[in-house]
Amino acid sequence: MQNQMYKPLPSGSVVDFFELAAHQNADGIALKFGSNSYSFKALNNSINKYANYLLKSGVQKGDIIGVVLDRSPQVITALLAILKCGAAYLPIDPEFPEDRIKLMLDDSEAAFVLIHNGLSGSIHTPQSKHLIIEELEAALTDGDVADPGIKVSGNDLAYLLYTSGSTGKPKGVMVSHKNLLNFLLGMKDIFNTDTHTRLLAVTTVSFDIAGLEIFLPLISGGQLVLADKEITKDSKALIDILQVQGINIFQATPATYKLLLQEKWPSLESLTLLCGGEALSKNIADALLQKCGRLFNMYGPTETTIWSTVKEITKEDGFISIGAPIRNTSVYILDENHALLPAGTEGEIFIGGDGVALGYYKRPELTAERFIADPFSGVEGARIYKTGDLGKVLESGEFLCLGRSDNQAKIRGYRIELEEIEHYISKISGIKDAVVKVEGADSLEPKLIAYLIPSDLATLNGGAATKKEVVSWRKELSKDLPAYMIPNGWVKLETFPLTPNKKVDRKALKYKEPENELKTVVESSREEAVLTGRLKAIWETELGVKGVEPDDNFLN
Ligand code: AMP
């Protein structure tokens, strides 16, 4: 089904729309971070200074620039400055393991990487020149505030974003200026954002939905209230900031809302909540409706640019749907032969229109497999994206999302291809094969469970992994995988159960909570991770030392 109103995309890019807002509302507050506020004029000047510095450093139109920066006004400035240079940004969370950061920078052949001084030493990237943000900042006092005036076209790359890959290697999704602008204008229409908008941004920039949080208020002349790293992890602080800053739009995943709903929270009539990234349950929706003026369920994969369908959820709704396509977007339910299915019949969700990304970076086969020719729109060259989501359309035209047809999973809003974790586990010495499953997907704390076959069956130990094994496997995996991809439970097996057609029968893999000793290991590893994170933050913020690792020795 196509969104009925096709709206021609105006010329220009997100940067042009930001500038327009910046001129119209020069003295209005554009960005707040802690106790600091930046007017549109001040922010635009900083962005221009950054952009001119980047151009002087050799950045060229069309370059891919890695951004490995902490959550701060600098990261917002950097993203817009990169776009103003006609370059594309590759946002990477500095909390990712160094090997994963390197893998993304190497794979993308990023020409430059904007990085903190403290991290630069440990991220060796032969192809990417490091631009140290502290040096850039120091050089800015008398930087050039003139707009570099570089124009981009709709098909130019705006950003490259890596998501988990089922072959064991993350894949880069290429999102164009046309994709991004169409999305943002669609959101502006739906939510009527303007100079009164106050949006609280909590999502890490390495997750595509951060694009809504950063750009939507800025192109609308509204306020972007950027929560710092500590606040994003603290439900009480988030609820406080929602009230203190008079936030009227907030976006989060169901996982975050589940945590927020555990706190006391007055009903905020002027607040619009956007919920997406995972299925929104009726319970959570009902609880959220008590807390806000309006609630929207947002659905869409990174490959079709942030969100592709939207549904306002009301108290009267008997079930939760993902609604209808946004502006210039089509959604189809197809069978295995890519034939349209009638209303009410379950099939796979395909998405077409202006949000369909350019494809996967340097992965032509995978691009051809997932982005196929659009047989429905009649637009030459148009493609539809095969989401891997199961769904159906109702007679009313509303869509339902009914889960996955593959092994992609979501853990606390993070998209994970379970095969990627399996790939790294199978590389660990002493492990022959592994299958990873999510247990308790709907619970407050879903768990990733690794089922593995040891190379030496004599070490089976009745299926129980030893404390030493778990500690060493977790350590090994954390070199390549972020914390949310490291299993919390481990089961050793002689063989995997198979389905009649000889595939691993994941459903037959059953997990039993381990006995006390192992549970303690898992929990203490989790506590250790929290503690390590806190210590790391103290070293970084209080002492200015970046890249501190748990095993570092500070005495020598
Ligand atoms: P990502 O690329 O990280 O945005 O993940 C996209 C996937 O998340 C989709 O293909 C769906 O499987 C899932 N997803 C996103 N939003 C929703 C939603 N509102 N309801 C159900 N599943 C969702």
What does this entry look like structurally?
The chain has 556 residues and is α/β, with parallel strands linked by helices. Residues 520-531 and 546-556 have low confidence and may be disordered. Helix 5 links the parallel strand 5 (112-115) and strand 6 (129-132). The chain is globular and about 70 Å long. The strands form six sheets. A nine-stranded mixed beta sheet has the order 2-1-10-9-11-12-13-14-15, with helices on both faces. Strands 16, 17, 19, 20 and 21 form a five-stranded antiparallel beta sheet that branches. A four-stranded parallel beta sheet has the order 4-3-5-6, sandwiched between helices. Helix 2 packs across helix 3 and helix 7 crosses helix 8 (210-219). It has 16 helices and 26 strands. Among the domains are: 408-514, ANL, C-terminal domain (GMP Synthetase, Chain A, domain 3, 2-Layer Sandwich), CATH 3.30.300.30; 526-556, no CATH class. Adenosine monophosphate binds at residues 163, 276-280, 297-299, 301-302, 322, 387, 389, 401, 404, 410, 415.
Look at the structure and name the CATH superfamily of one domain: ANL, C-terminal domain
Individual helix count:
16
Sheet of most strands: 9 strands, mixed
**Rg (C-alpha, Å):** 23 Å
Fraction of residues in helix: 25-40%
Beta-strand portion reads 25-35%
Bound molecules: adenosine monophosphate
Structural class: alpha/beta
| Annotated CATH architecture of one domain | 2-Layer Sandwich
Quick take:
With 556 residues, the protein is α/β, with parallel strands linked by helices. It is 31% helix and 25% strand. Among the domains are: 408-514, GMP Synthetase, Chain A, domain 3, CATH 3.30.300.30; 526-556, no CATH class.
